[in-house]
Amino acid sequence: MQLHSHNATEKEVKSAMKDLGIQRAKLHGWPNTYSFTKAMGEMLVLAFADNLCAIILRPTIITSTYKEPFPGWIEGARTMDIFVLMYGKGKSNFMIGDPDSILDVIPVDMVVNSMLAAVVHHDHNRRERSSPSSFIYHIGSSDSNVCRPLKLCDVISMMYRYFTNNPWTSMRGEVVKVREYVLLPSITSLRRYITIHYLPLLQVLKLMNMLLYHYFDDKCAAVEKNISMVIRFAEIYRPYVFFYGMRVFYSPSHYHPFMFTL
What we know:
Helices cover 48% and strands 11% of the residues. The chain is mostly helical. The chain starts with a helix and ends in a 21-residue tail after the last helix.
């Protein structure tokens, strides 16, 4: 209401609400609204489960499929897929992050398999329990005893190799040639990088736009949007690109190769 009383545009209201959401999440100990609202959802499920057996699964970073319906299938672009698409389309080749930070990614079809396995397992054993219980499972692809955790530098290397050998073709038929990815150590260094490499070009483009009677309006807006998007994504995903732990809930000395016994 305060924003509307000051004649704020819908775009300004939307941006302010996004910032408020992140502030609210951080106030309660969560890095962003994505993880905060997921935690709220879990609390509601457990609070209203009553006599039902509640099963909560917490996958790590979900990515495209391993096999089904075919390798690489994905619906929409979320989490790390956004960075892959922006890089492949030539819109951005820089972001903050530590090359040695761990990215425990898991294909979406493996997450679905885990969900089905959990349901079947608990359905088979529900008669053995005197009362309904709630279960929480963490789903990941990395373990120190089985395979080396995937690092950010590994993902970047795979992105570069893939789009070099399989370049993106735009709607105009133009082949996009990707450059090597640049990782920056902080938000401050990211802003400095943008100031040095992109803002001068944007200023020149704006000057040409004025001289040519706003011929480049759309181009200027697109560049400004990409810059704002990169900075916002950097703020949102900062906790994940500087992560050094492994998302496991068991002791490595008691590791068992099967999460569920069917």
